[in-house]
Amino acid sequence: MIGYIKGLVTHIFKDSCFVDVHGVGYRAYIPVSTIDTLTIGRETMLFTYMNVREDAIVLYGFATMDEYDLFMLLIGVNGVGPKVALGILSAGRPDGFRLAVHQKNMKVLTKLPGIGKKTAERIVLELHDKIGAVSDDSGDVLPDSDSTVPQGIAAEALAALTSLGYTSQEVLPAIEAKAPQCQTVEELLKNVLRALGSGR
Question: Which H or E run contains 26?
Fold first, then answer.
């Protein structure tokens, strides 16, 4: 089992990154919150979980031990695999998720990617006494209901820009503003980069 990796970030993708550890490139699948902490060309340390299947060995990475611990709790729930657990962590803050479980807020939990009513019930049943104390001001597990996940060319532009070292928080406002005016990814990227350049 690989407990953590420490090395140079060489590539950043939509849901993963490459980390060069003494000349060996490890691909780690990571939540959005971890992506936002990475910069190409800078060193990082990721706490990791290695999922061994018959057809693949997949490494999952996390910037904080808090995210790692929550991920490990989630994959221990029947019906929640690593991909679903990663989606939950990408949907919001760990404390927000803990609060939803603590309050048995099924409405919030069933909005999470890959989580239906039965799985949400199992999460509450199995994790309610394991997640520890949470405060009522921990925030929402999900972004504001009015916010949307980028789709189509917006999603492609976001992936391209994060691979260049930009963070999601840095580029999303410009992408959302320019996407309705653009027909292609290339056009959108040019407009977003121009907007980012003028704002600096």
Answer: strand 24-29
| Domain boundaries 4-62, corresponding CATH code | 2.40.50.140
Lowest mean pLDDT, pick from 73-87, 103-117, 140-154: 140-154
Residue 151 to residue 142: CA distance in whole angstroms: 18
Only one residue has tokens 């019906």, namely 79
Predicted structure pTM score: 0.67
Q: What is the tens place of the pLDDT at every residue in 41-100? A: 999 999 999 999 888 899 999 999 999 999 999 999 988 999 999 988 988 788 888 888
Domain borders along the chain are 4-62, 65-127, 152-198
**Domain 65-127 falls in which CATH fold?**
DNA polymerase; domain 1 (1.10.150)
Amino acid making up residue 126: E
- Note the pLDDT of residue 179: 86
CA distance 63 to 33: 8
d(CA 46, CA 68): 9
Question: What's the rounded Cα separation, in Å, for the pair 127 and 114?
Answer: 17
Find out whether 138 and 95 touch, Cβ atoms under 8 Å: yes
Q: Whose CA is closest to 34, among 55, 1, 59?
A: 59
Name the percent of the chain lying above pLDDT 70.
Answer: 88
Q: What helix, strand, coil percent values describe the chain, rounded to 5?
A: 45, 20, 35
